[in-house]
Design brief:
- The structure holds 2 protein chains of 2 kinds.
- Chain A is 9% helix and 14% strand.
- By secondary structure, chain A is mainly beta.
- Chain A has a domain of 62 residues: Alpha-Beta Plaits (2-Layer Sandwich), CATH 3.30.70.
- In chain A, strands 1-4 form a two-stranded antiparallel sheet.
- The longest helix of chain A is centred in the last third of the chain and has 5 residues.
- Chain A starts with 39 loop residues before the first strand and ends with a strand.
- Chain B is built from 14 helices and 15 strands.
- Chain B has a 6-stranded mixed sheet, sandwiched between helices.
- At the A-B interface, loops of A face helix 9 of B.
Chain lengths: 101, 399
């Protein structure tokens, strides 16, 4: 039953899908761009950021990438614009703006 | 060696559960199924089985926990009735769509309202489109036999669907009758060990069960589920054949009782089939050619097989122990008629609603129904196509 799910796509006939659409791989939600749902957008003011990294772990969509101990720009393909990061930031480095961009 | 005993239907199902020794049973009490988890927990307390019993806080949780345990890789089951099954509704669909081969012992009881604890099939029929296999029993023996056959059907690779093993509340669940039991070892061998190929607690082989699916995939998944239900028909027959080898008792999708030469056939499900058979015996002594088609497997619905079985008769009474509130008949009435039409079997039929909320249904009622069918065929009378049996009506009171 174990299938290479990377070979399944939107053209795969029903006979070749997995039973109950079981997924035999991790991280497939990466291919689902939940950023399309956003109605508010976080704006990152880099000059105010002290790299305390309180924002990254509270993001429900893992949309604040961290590299070498520093947060990078938002992953707008997956950010739903919930605003939790802006609320948790002690330095006002994240501002929520109405609208998609 | 078979063991001769006397038991109620609930005792018989609990006894089968003891013999199977499943891994996990989450359950919540509700009349008339309460005795099943009660007896199973006694078996556990006495150290006779090592099933993990989870006393959950509702039937919604019972079915959720059963699905969770099954997905984790444990052979799981639960038991319920009536409103309990209704509270499981959302999870029933999940059990089937996530392709979980779990088993539910359903003790049929009416749904409110008016609130009532007695037997009819409105709980099981309410779940008829949830994707479950549904098998109905006439008596305690069949409840026991059907339960033992449930896991081998559910766990078969081409099926992987949940099975509802149904018996009539109180009539079957609480009445004590003779029963032939199988030896523990025979049941164990028949049901076998549960070795799922994919499950959550499988180190090194991660799997996600029930993930979100976008529109481009969901319709295909539903079709695959429907195919699995169709596959179940053949598997149910194969398992029945294997069961006959160990028990001597024969099962099919339905039982045909004296139907071969019958002019009039009553199609009925559950305990009332016994009443109908008695009436058939009585009427045959008087020269009537009558028979009973007792439906055992309601899902998958054997439409083609029923059409084939009924095509030789002149008229059929289709008996529903459930009101469908569609203004046109009961669920069996609708589905049997659709099956007859699709297979171009143009016999006369009448759809009767009987026994709602525990209303009596007797041999004389069956005789009355057969004579109404006869009046329709031989005297050109036109009975109401959809009517209630034993309903108090103004007209009858005035006569």
């Amino acid at each position: 039953m174990r299938t290479d799910v990377t070979k399944i796509n939107e053209k795969t006939p029903h006979e070749q899908l997995t039973e109950g659409l079981m997924m035999f791989a991790g991280g497939t939600s990466r291919y689902f761009n939940t950023g399309e749902w956003r109605t508010n957008t976080p704006v990152f003011h880099e000059e105010k950021c002290r790299q305390c990294l309180l924002c990254a772990p509270v993001c429900p969509d893992s949309s604040i990438p961290v590299k070498n101990g520093e947060r990078l720009a938002f992953d707008m393909d997956h950010c739903k614009g919930c605003g939790i990061c802006a609320n948790v930031c002690p330095f006002g480095a994240i501002e929520m703006k109405e609208g998609v961009e | 060696m078979a063991i001769k005993e006397r038991m109620s239907g609930n005792e018989a199902v609990a006894y089968a559960i003891r013999q199977i020794n499943p891994d996990v049973m989450p359950a919540f009490p509700i009349t008339p199924s309460t005795e099943i988890p009660q007896m199973v927990s006694t078996y556990i307390a006495n150290g006779e089985i090592d099933t993990e019993f989870i006393p959950v806080e509702s039937e919604h949780s019972a079915m959720s926990a059963t699905i969770g345990a099954e997905a984790a890789g444990a052979r799981s089951l639960t038991a319920t009735s009536s409103a309990g099954l209704a509270l499981m509704w959302e999870e029933l669909l999940l059990a089937a769509s996530n392709r979980m081969p779990l088993v539910l012992a359903l003790v049929n009881r009416t749904l409110s309202g008016p609130i009532n604890i007695n037997c009819d099939h409105s709980d099981g029929m309410g779940a008829r489109d949830t994707g479950w296999i549904q098998i109905y029993a006439e008596n305690n023996q069949e409840a026991y036999d059907n339960f033992i056959q449930a896991y081998p059907i559910a766990e078969q690779e081409s099926v992987h669907l949940p099975v509802m093993v149904c018996q009539d509340g109180f009539i079957t669940s609480h009445a004590v009758e003779n029963i032939m039991l199988l030896e523990d070892s025979a049941v164990k061998d028949f049901v076998g060990e549960y070795c799922p190929e994919e499950y959550l607690l499988n180190p090194g082989k991660p799997v996600a069960v029930g993930p979100y699916s976008v529109s481009n995939y969901a319709m295909e998944a539903k079709k695959n589920q429907e195919i699995a239900l169709e596959n179940a028909k053949e598997v149910i027959l194969e398992v029945a054949k294997r069961f006959k080898d160990i028990s001597g008792r024969e099962y099919g999708l339905f039982e045909e009782y004296k139907t071969k030469d019958a002019d009039y056939i009553m199609l009925i499900m559950g305990s009332a089939a016994g009443t109908a058979k008695q009436a058939v015996d009585d009427l045959r002594e008087k020269g009537w050619k009558v028979g009973v088609l007792k439906l055992r497997v309601f899902r998958p619905f054997p439409a083609e097989e029923i059409a084939e079985a009924l095509k030789g008769c002149k008229a059929a009474a289709i008996m529903d122990r459930c009101e469908s509130y569609n203004g046109n008949g009961g669920p069996l009435g609708s589905e049997v008629l659709a099956g007859l039409f699709r297979h171009k079997v143009m016999i006369e039929t009448v759809n009767y609603i009987y026994g709602l909320a525990g209303r009596d249904f007797t041999v004389s009622d069956v005789c009355h129904i057969f004579s109404e069918l006869d009046g329709m065929v031989t005297k050109g009378k036109k009975p109401r196509q959809y009517q209630y049996i034993r309903l108090r009506e103004q007209e009858a009171a005035d006569e």
